Amino acid sequence: MIVTSALIIWKALMCITGSESPVVVVLSGSMEPGFKRGDILFLHMSKDPIRAGEIVVFNVDGREIPIVHRVIKVHERQDTGEVDVLTKGDNNYGDDRLLYAQGQLWLQRHHIMGRAVGFLPYVGWVTIIMTEKPIIKYILIGALGLLVITSKD
Amino acid sequence: MHSFGYRANALLTVAVTILALMCAIASLSDNFNSPTPSAQVQVLNINWFQKHQDGNDEISLTLNISANLQSLFTWNTKQVFVFLAAEYETPMNSLNQVSLWDGIIPAKEHAKFWIHTSNKYRFIDQGSNLRGKDFNLTLHWHVMPKTGKMFADKIVMSGYRLPQDYR
Q1: Which reaction does it catalyse (chain A) (predicted)?
Q2: Which of A36, A71, A75, B11 can bridge A84 by disulfide, Cβ–Cβ 3.0-4.6 Å?
Q3: Contact call for B23 and A55, based on CB within 8 A
Q4: Rounded to 10 degrees, what is the CA torsion of B89, B90, B95, B98?
Q5: Contacting residues of A for B21, CB less than 8 Å apart
């Protein structure tokens, strides 16, 4: 029951928020005390322009893991409407230029996957544990499989 | 139908559903809060104002920021993230927002504050447009809940101008 309803909720969220990955798990402590490791964030991506203060999720070229930080500087072009954006983790001393690709000073819109609009604490620990200790994932799947096989109807 | 497995499964599902509902209701209750924040910023001093070798202007200011954000806090508020941004327009950019200072307010008691500080982050332009520039100082805040939807808003204070000459 839980697994199927979780799947339905996940797919519904994907449709509603219009993004590929509507929920992310916070992996680091760079946004503490607001977001702690293990919290999950709900994302939403709209065509609205990116503004300072928004918490955005972005991918750096060449890195798999998305980063969730706050926008601290915005420069938007008159003619094209394109933006240069600088981000920083609330709990970090310096801005994210060290995290960007070599020679990259700004993020552009296409780097940004979504804005964080809401969050739930602690729920993401399930994903973190399953990623860092894959044996637990196998045990869970094994147990679920066993349940299905041994059920009477 | 009455085996341990089925009962455990049903119990777990109901528990998780109720927990999710409680989180949603907690978040909804935040919508009933109508906050009345206030803020004031003074530019006390221009510390220095230079043009870099790469052609970008940079300025350093000392600011006095005072605000009362106590009405933003509800029982579902974990913290309020507040930052002050300088906003201005240049020929190349329709909007520039540069965060000068930010802080975290962990509780209602700390939400009425007064701070005397130089800009925490560098105020650098893309280009050399800052001389005599009119700009707004906007105090933005982001209410981060214990669970649920985050709210953000701001107060725009206009009427500030940068000096005409480098110093």
Answers
A1: Cleavage of hydrophobic, N-terminal signal or leader sequences from secreted and periplasmic proteins
A2: A75
A3: no
A4: -90
A5: none
B150 in contact with A, Cβ within 8 Å: yes
Residues A49 and A13 in one domain: yes
In angstroms, the separation between the Cα of residue B97 and the nearest Cα of chain A is: 5
Of B78, B85, B150, the CB nearest to A52: B85
The structural domain count of chain A equals: 2
Domain encompassing residue A134: 124-152
Average per-residue pLDDT for chain A: 81
CB-nearest to A118 from B1, B9, B150 is B150
Same domain, A116 and A132: no
Among B12, B93, B147, beta carbon nearest to A78: B93
Best CA proximity match to A26, nearest among A93, A112, A123: A123
Measured distance CA(A141)–CA(B11) in Å, rounded: 20
Question: At residue B76, what are phi and psi to the nearest 5 degrees?
Answer: -95, 15
Could you report the per-residue pLDDT of B128-158, keeping only the tens digit for each? 888 899 999 999 999 988 888 888 899 999 9
* Domain harbouring A80, CATH code: 2.10.109.10
Q: Which chain B residue is nearest to residue A152, measuring alpha carbons?
A: B1
The answer, for B93 touching chain A at a CB cutoff of 8 Å, is yes
Residue A7 has pLDDT above 60, yes or no: yes
Per CATH, the architecture of B35-161 is what?
Answer: Sandwich (2.60)
Q: Is there a single domain that holds both residue A86 and residue A114? A: yes
Residue A35's nearest CA partner among B17, B147, B2 is B147
Q: What is the pLDDT of residue A21?
A: 60
**Predicted local distance difference test score (pLDDT) of residue A5:** 63
In chain B, which among 31-70 make CB contacts under 8 A with chain A? none
ipTM score of complex: 0.84
Residue listed under structure tokens 């020929």: B91
Task: State the smallest CA–CA distance between residue B122 and chain A in angstroms.
Answer: 10
| Residues linked to residue B152 through DSSP beta bridges, in sequence order | B142
pTM above 0.80, yes or no: yes
* Shared domain check, A80 and A63: yes
